[in-house]
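Feature request, filed as a ticket because there's no other form

It would be nice if the structure record came with a short human-readable summary line next to the tokens. Right now we just get the raw output. Example of a typical job, pasted below so the devs can see what we mean:
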Amino acid sequence: MTQPVTPGLVIVDKAGGITSHGVVGRVRRLAGTRKVGHAGTLDPMATGVLVLGVDRATRLLGHLMLTEKAYDATIRLGIATTTDDAEGEITARATAGHLEEATIRDALARFVGDIEQVPTAVSAIKVDGKRAYAMVRAGEEVELAARPVTIHELVVHDVRPGELHPEETVDVDISVRCSSGTYIRAIARDLGAALGVGGHLTALRRTAVGPYTLDHAKTLEQLEAGFAVLPIAEAARAAFPSYELDAGQAQEVRYGRRLALALDELTAVFAPDGEFLALYEPAGEAARPVAVFTG
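Raw output as currently delivered:
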């Protein structure tokens, strides 16, 4: 007899070279259900935290996508590419070996805070109904509008001669904590442009999505050996403020009704027995349901 699927999150430490869709496919097989989704993709080159939802928990993903994320990355100055990373074709070269470390650090410091960022041209953003990356691959010119993003923190760990052409390129290791929708590749591109030498990413590792870090993540090989799902109640408590309801309030939630609660932000509400019931948000002096997970 097939065991019922446990609704919850699967935190994957994605390896390089596999697409996020490929990871979803593997987890669908392991979970025994097609109802698996992700809270934001990673490029094939990138590694690290990929948050997947199983069964009812897929409805949490849209809310998790809005949380901040953290990355470790290596920028190579002196070479620009079509994709702003190492997988693209080289479009320009310029000697970067003359750049002083202080100059590079000062330039990166200007990215911290609320900024307007033009997404990378090979993003999944739609232009006239078509994905930008598909247009680029088809040889079309793509112009994307700048979007507001927030770089909460940008730490420079190392500035050194590049592994490729060390006399001409410079590699910069950074860590970034940023809002959802920020493109780390665009930081590499814009840093190179600001310094007049071009730049692209040679490595990208996502270290956190909201509260979920590499400490919570398992590789696909580890999941093959022992499939693990973070139960939906634990996932909700980790990601959102929580509120414990009484029996009467819990029944109102099951009907999808408003509650006479004063909430400050999107909040996970729980039945007296600990069951996760719904996400509620402030609505004047009351609270209204955003997503109900019962039934």
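Something like this underneath would help us a lot:
The chain has eight helices and 18 strands.
The chain has three domains: 8-65+210-234, 69-86+96-201, 240-292.
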